[in-house]
Amino acid sequence: MKIVSVVGARPQFVKAAVLSHALRLRHEEVLVHTGQHYDDLMSDVFFRELGLPAPDANLGVGSASQALQTARMIEALEPVLTQQAPDVVLVYGDTNSTLAGALTAAKLGLPLAHVEAGFRSYDRTMPEEINRVLTDHVSRYLFCVTRASVECLRKEGIERGVYEAGDLMYDSLLAALPKAKAIEGEVLARYGVEAGGFYVATVHRPANTDDATALRSVCEAFGRLDAPVVFPLHPRTKAALAEAAIEVADNVRAVDPVGYFEMLALARNARAVLSDSGGVRREAYFLGVPSVTLRDNTEWPETLETGWDVLAGTDPEKIVEAAQRARPETSPPPIFGDGQTSARIVEVLERDPPNS
Prior knowledge:
Strand order of the largest sheet: 3-2-1-4-5-6-7
Largest sheet: 7 strands, parallel
Number of domains: 2
Oligomer: single chain
């Protein structure tokens, strides 16, 4: 079987690393990088660290508006998919790369597999929500992380080709954890922090970076926390801080983006993780570290129900209160699978071929 996998952003590289390995044991995979994330710290470092095969094609799309970036990806993807004529096109998550891969495959009549199908925040102002909804409705295979995602699809009339597969991010984390633990001492020393004595924060969603008031409120909350905050800056966030002339507080260590192993080392030793990223918060959950969602909604209600995550939006009072709360007394329940998601996806593709 020939599979074309379309990736373009940091979390997709993390997931593709484990699934590509499993696919290539018995099948042909062609890896296409859209270039959505393109600098070394947001792209190349993950290929090096995770052993992800070099892309067979790099579309080099780069930054642009939501519509223009997606359009450029579709235009560049069409000849690649036409030439490759794969049995399946595989996309991950909810980025513009996801939607571009989905729409191009659908227009060419190619079967589509969506990894992480069924997420719903029910907030149509989020570009990611539009991307995931449209992708799900043109997919032949819908690989869901949790039972809740399966149920979301059922409510929309999608039942054929739906599989509860688990979370590839958990597969990746289990594989990476030994290396992350080995560099913990070096990483903590680099940022001048001690285990359990700091917070980790990331901000990258347009709702927070494109709204100077929201971004200022989030940074104010970081400055009011009772310990240092290590704050790796997404390029979009760095530019937004500069444009709004927002200066972070003395306890906030605003740094360049960090690699996958370094981020795991930081998160594992943090008092709490504060983020608007679904992936970073799930990693915190796997590691047994409390998280704070810097949004008013989430596509991961399961983490809220367990008490390991709290919705705080951009209100400084709520953020500080949520970050400084006590840890839950019980360990996070295993709601994201068993670490065998990549094998399960390959098994489904083999058992239920695309033209059956």
